[in-house]
Amino acid sequence: MKNEERYIRNKMGDANPFRVPDGYFDSFPSRIMEQLSEREAVEIPMRRSFVSRFRGIMYAAACILLAVFGTVVYINESGLRSEENADDVVASGSTGSGSYTYEEEFADYVMMDNTDIYAYLSGE
Amino acid sequence: MNNYDEHKVIALLSEPKTQRKAFEMVVRQYSEQLYWLVRRIVLTHEDSNDVMQNVFIKAWSRLDTFRNDSKLSTWLYRIAVNESLDFMRHQKSMAAVTADADESSVSNMLMADRYFDGDKAAAMLQQAISKLPEVQRMVFNMKYFDDMKYSEMSKVLNTSEGALKASYHIAVKKISEYFRSND
């Protein structure tokens, strides 16, 4: 395609063959303005900045990020608390103080202690 | 030195007291480049002058449709393209009615035009361009003569860049074939 375009340019050159009367462009604006009707000014919206155009999306994104951050922090802290409670339980040797897990409840129900559970799991 | 600052001009256009003065600045800034866009479509100076007046009268009366989310030049180009095409369609329908359609009329008309300084080859180029479908003609003129970017053309003509590139390639092919067949 470049060859064809080059062929046309070689044949035509770059000169503009069209002409205008002398002073045409200089006088054109005033001639146009004379023709424009007198009317009340109309409103043209000013261009909204990048921030204002995407303000809604940015607020939503900020809220989502905050929610995610808060959730992550909450989960981490909950996990830490659970581990701390479990440590307390192990240190105190008590299953009845602090948090009472499902496994502990089950073990109490079937009246099994840790020795019985280990023996069962190891297949003795 | 050109002091034109589009942001400032648009701000002035937005103010009732300065709107008319700002519009005159716009006319001064864009009239010449719009004129050549129009002239390459309608070909004669007299018709171009008529179309140009319609362009700016329409731009003034529809200033409130300028959404300010595109460049002022893009908006004006769009009006100029539409006015030029409307003019050509009207001329074509008049020619059909009066049976004045003539294959070589464009070339002959230009050679007789006092505001055309080109040689026979230049007249033939305009003849070849005049045979193109409307959109191809616009695309060819904007790309070949103004070297307009496809991204900008896409906004003016509301057509995809891919379609515009294809349109230009086809137009170039047709014109080069026209010259080769008339050599």
Automatic annotation (TrEMBL), chain A:
UniProt keyword list: Membrane, Transmembrane, Transmembrane helix
Membrane-spanning residues: 56-75
Entry superkingdom: Bacteria
Protein name: Uncharacterized protein
